[in-house]
């Protein structure tokens, strides 16, 4: 870039009508290089290695190099999955698991967001709430399972609460720090415009903290699925974790692996959803 | 805190847009305002000039209700509108929404706010940018939006804190013309804080020079509107002000 720009720039200075010179050094199409969505025909290099690995895996299974009780072939895993879909087990399990994650996210996320707003806003709330919250955060929340079983039994409640507990902290941290970073000049503008507190919160504070809150939401989703997976290992009678555990009892490695793939896909899906939300909420920056 | 009462309320008569009497304020040991007596007559433009650190903006902030530890009397006619040196637009709200925000205090409903916002954007020549995001505006455009937001509520008092300080010289001149036009049409009472004496003479009916925390000089600008920047009197007013500010040339 530097070597092509140098002479062009010099020529521009010396001769105002530098059209000819510029044509000799056609500008690099920046849009095509920098914008990720730009359409260009090229070899999808990033797909090559996964496809090769899949093929090797299938060939290894077919020739007996990979024992099926350790790692079934990709085809067998897909077949096991299809069986679950046909019997309706997968749909039912997904419904139960997704419900747990969403409820946990609403409960824990709501609490994390509210605490984050309070602590980000008020020095008193910060002094009173932050120390106990940091202490709680130091506890590995997955380690609380025995305690949760003692407290809440083995039904839906401990699972949802475990998800909620895991989700609350990232949202609390990112929200409070996002709110602390709101430009005081904008808050002053809101004040001279006569905004009420709730209007200031809605139109100034939350949009201003949105980039960080959304980062927190992405972390929260990841933790939500992780918490769910662990919570579903114990005493589940429904949900994806139950399907996986059940399959383990019958030595159905293929079903177990299929369940893991579904967990991964769910994680990817929610991550993608948050990114869509991010793009929409932060679209005012794109054109700048 | 002294026993002097702090009053930020409506001016007593309709001929005054803003008034201070004995306005004092200190930052630690340093007394920034040592008893400021200032009047902005209704519909008149008063410019406040002074060297940096002379407390110009402190007076404006007291009038805007952004200061709470001053003493003395501070009265304004209704709630003043404020435009700062930076536009301070909300970047996640469109130009139109930002201007409509200026009517929130008045309690207008959303449709009224929106219509009034478009009207004022037309007046400042930015109707075509109504649905743009603020980050896509040039510095001059953004400041015009900020001024539209300050004026959309048709206030009796407008406080302008070096509104063109961050703009280049040419944009500055055209912005001054936009303001002159708006002043002539709406008749706001204006307090303009600036360090540019030419801007003060071009826009104001009266210029106050702030020195050592008090108004040291008052200068009536007795020129036909709009003030002709090329008139010999214009230059004379400007050099008088520069002399008051201790600048020789």
Verbal overview:
The complex is a heterodimer of chains A (288) and B (249). Chain A is 78% helix and 0% strand. Chain A has 288 residues and is mainly α. Chain A has a single domain, classed as Orthogonal Bundle (MetI-like fold), CATH 1.10.3720. The N terminus of chain A is likely disordered. Chain B has two domains: 161 residues, Rossmann fold (3-Layer(aba) Sandwich); 63 residues, no CATH class. Chain B contains seven helices and ten strands. Chain B has a six-stranded mixed sheet, with helices on both faces. A four-stranded mixed sheet of chain B has the order 1-5-2-3, with helices on one face. Chain B starts with 5 loop residues before the first strand and ends in a 5-residue tail after the last helix. The relative contact order of chain B is 0.17. Chains A and B meet through helix 10 and helix 11 of A and loops of B. Chain A: InterPro entries: MetI-like, MetI-like_sf. Chain A: It is found in: Cell membrane. Chain A: It holds the Pfam family BPD_transp_1. Chain A: Keywords: Cell membrane, Membrane, Transmembrane, Transmembrane helix, Transport. Chain A: It is a multi-pass membrane protein.
What brief labels describe this structure?
heterodimer; A: 288 residues; mainly alpha; MetI-like fold; 14 helices; 78% helix; 0% strand; disordered N terminus; B: 249 residues; alpha/beta; Rossmann fold; 2 domains; six-stranded mixed beta sheet; four-stranded mixed beta sheet; 7 helices; 26% strand; globular; transport (chain B)
Shape of chain A: globular
Helix-strand pattern of chain B: EEEEHEEHHHEHEHEEH
Secondary-structure element string of chain A: HHHHHHHHHHHHHH
CATH superfamily placement of chain A: MetI-like
Number of strands of chain A: 0
InterPro entries (chain A): MetI-like (IPR000515), MetI-like_sf (IPR035906)
Protein name (chain A): Sulfonate transport system permease protein
Organism (chain A): Luteimicrobium subarcticum
Domain ABC transmembrane type-1 (chain A): 90-274
């Amino acid at each position: 870039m530097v070597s092509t720009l140098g002479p062009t720039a010099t020529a521009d200075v010396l001769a105002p009508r530098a059209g000819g010179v510029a044509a000799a050094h056609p500008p690099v199409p920046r849009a095509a290089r920098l914008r990720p969505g730009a359409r260009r025909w090229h070899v999808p290099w990033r797909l090559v290695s996964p496809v090769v690995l899949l093929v090797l895996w299938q060939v290894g299974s077919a020739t007996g190099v990979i024992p099926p009780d350790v790692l079934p072939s990709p085809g067998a895993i897909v077949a096991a999955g299809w069986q679950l879909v046909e019997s309706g087990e997968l749909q039912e399990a997904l419904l139960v698991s997704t419900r747990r994650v969403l409820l946990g996210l609403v409960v824990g996320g709501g609490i994390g967001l509210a605490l984050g707003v309070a602590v980000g806003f008020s020095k008193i709330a910060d002094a009173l709430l932050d120390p106990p919250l940091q202490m709680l955060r130091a506890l590995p929340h997955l380690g609380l399972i025995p305690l949760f079983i003692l407290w809440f039994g083995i039904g839906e409640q401990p699972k949802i609460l475990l998800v909620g507990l895991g989700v609350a902290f990232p949202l609390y941290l990112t929200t409070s720090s996002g709110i602390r970073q709101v430009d005081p000049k904008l808050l002053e503008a809101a004040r001279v415009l006569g905004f009420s507190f709730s209007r200031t919160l809605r139109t100034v504070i939350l949009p201003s903290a949105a980039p960080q809150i959304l980062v927190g939401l992405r972390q929260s989703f990841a933790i939500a699925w992780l918490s769910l997976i662990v919570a579903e290992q114990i005493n589940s009678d429904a949900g994806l974790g139950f399907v996986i555990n059940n399959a383990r009892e019958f030595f159905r490695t293929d079903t177990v692996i299929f369940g893991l793939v579904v967990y991964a896909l769910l994680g990817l899906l929610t991550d993608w959803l948050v990114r869509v939300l991010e793009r929409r909420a932060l679209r005012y920056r794109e054109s700048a | 805190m002294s026993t002097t009462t702090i009053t930020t309320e409506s001016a007593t008569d309709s001929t005054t847009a803003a008034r201070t009497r004995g306005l004092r304020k200190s930052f630690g040991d340093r007394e920034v305002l040592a008893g400021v007596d200032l009047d902005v007559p209704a519909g008149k433009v008063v410019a406040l000039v002074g060297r940096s650190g002379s407390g110009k903006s402190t007076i404006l902030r007291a009038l805007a209700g952004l200061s709470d530890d001053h003493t003395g009397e501070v009265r304004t006619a209704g709630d003043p509108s404020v435009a700062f040196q930076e536009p301070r637009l909300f970047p996640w709200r469109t130009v139109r929404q930002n201007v409509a925000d200026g009517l929130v205090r008045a309690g207008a409903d959303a449709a009224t706010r929106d219509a009034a916002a478009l009207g004022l954007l037309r007046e400042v020549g930015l109707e075509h940018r109504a649905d743009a995001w603020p980050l896509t505006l040039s510095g001059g455009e953004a400041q015009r939006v900020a001024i539209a937001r300050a004026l959309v509520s048709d206030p009796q008092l407008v406080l302008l804190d070096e509104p063109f300080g961050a703009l280049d010289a040419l944009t500055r001149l055209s912005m001054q013309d936009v303001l002159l036009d708006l002043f002539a049409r709406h008749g706001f009472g204006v307090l303009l804080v600036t360090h540019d004496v030419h801007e003060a003479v071009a826009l104001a009916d009266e210029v106050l020079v702030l020195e050592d925390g008090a108004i040291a000089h008052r200068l009536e600008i007795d020129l036909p509107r709009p003030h002709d920047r090329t008139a010999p009197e214009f230059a004379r007013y400007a050099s008088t002000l520069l002399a008051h500010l201790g600048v020789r040339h």
